[in-house]
Prior knowledge:
heterodimer, A: 316 residues, Rossmann fold, 2 domains, five-stranded parallel beta sheet, four-stranded parallel beta sheet, 9 strands, 40% helix, globular, B: 194 residues, alpha/beta, 5 helices, 28% helix
Amino acid sequence: MRHLLATRNLSYDNAMAILDTAQEMATVSARSIKKLPTLRGQTVVNLFFEDSTRTRTSFEAAAKRLSADVLNFAVKTSSVSKGESLKDTVQTLEAIGGDAIVMRHWASGAAQQLANFGWSSSAVINAGDGTHEHPTQALLDAFTLRHRLHGLQASGKDLNGLHVVIVGDILHSRVARSNVWLLHTLGAKVTLSGPPTLMPVGVTTWPVEINYDLDALLTQQPDAIMMLRVQAERMSGDFFPSAAEYTRGWGLTNDRYKTIEGAGTLIMHPGPMNRGLEISAAAADSAQNTALEQVANGVSVRMAVLYLLLAGQPGQ
Amino acid sequence: MVQEPVRKARTVMSESDIHRVLTRIAHEILEANRGVEHLMLLGIPRRGVPLANRLAEKLAEIEPEYVVLERTGQLDITLYRDDLARAESRIPATTIIPPAGIDNAVVVLVDDVLYSGRTIRAALDALADIGRPRTVRLAVLVDRGHRQLPLRADYVGKNLPTASSERVMVQLAEIDGGDDDYTSDQVQIVDVMH
């Protein structure tokens, strides 16, 4: 592995290597000295073209726990707003001395371009590009699932035979896409649900089932249900008539939550949650909800990715 | 075409040799520590782990006060290595510290072969991040010399003079038992001639 750009082309072995390494990183986060000397002297650049406090902070915490130096490059205050191209920005950053670039960009494919055009020799980690992919989010979701199911014995185990339902705005969600590919690679069965207007064209070619009836899906007691965030900017479009109607059809309301309360179904959410819209307060606060574990696991998974990309000589 | 290197292996320790040596080291540890008080064994993956477990069983046989599960663990040093940049990243192994913690314990690190000493240096760094033992000791099955750091072992199974070009191979049932070429526990010196 040289870069982490997407889960679609991430091999089973590499995905398992990241999850197993993250398992060991998690024990570091649990002890009183939360620091390893592993990436001493290396520099990780956070290059965020979109606002994201959570993901950026998570990557920053991960890099610092491995003793790497972190440069945060906030695009709004940078020369990019003066018209500098991505290529020039990246080459400038590399001249300052970055070893890895963690990039979030509004354009789908930006990370691929950065990695493949020979602009830089840095390792590139995609922290979300447009509506394309957000691989570390999918990895931390898989890690959370695995950890809930197997605890300390999780190492070496994949997600074979699990049933995961992803609900919401699939069309615009890079989280959904990354999860679909990774869950498929790890052996889980994925069902998508949400308003038909928010299903992408071509979704029938994905390795998923589609079921618009969320209530029927919940009676099957899936192993996990991932509620995607409804993004405010989609509300004004023509995708669904009103927030209340979205909630009635695809929100995890109190009534729906009661049908899976106490069952083995985990409730996952990438955050931040819109309480009362895609998830009710009772569901958000229940022990079945993994949202906070997902955040904590995010640091371990990102430590694993940084370690595997930066510590050794790059493999194939 | 790459020619397979010719290998000449000679066995320097048999299964019963290993057994006897571990019994002796168990007694030596107890003698030096005057009993089992504060004692904790930490094996270094991979082959230090089964060796630590075997030593722990022997300690418990001699002094039933020694509770194996509460006093035995393993310490992975992958993330503390000083040669990480020279090879492809490897997946770290598991570190298991007994619930009592290592603070104030007499920690005996256990490994199979002591060579450059770099693994032990990394282990000392790893220990310092986990707690503050009262003493740290080192037990190894084989000391093959060629130290690159000022370290020595407190308990040595066998001193084995070797050339740098030779390799010391340790086979233990817990780890190598599934391999085709495993017949019994042993230590071999392998000449790698190209």
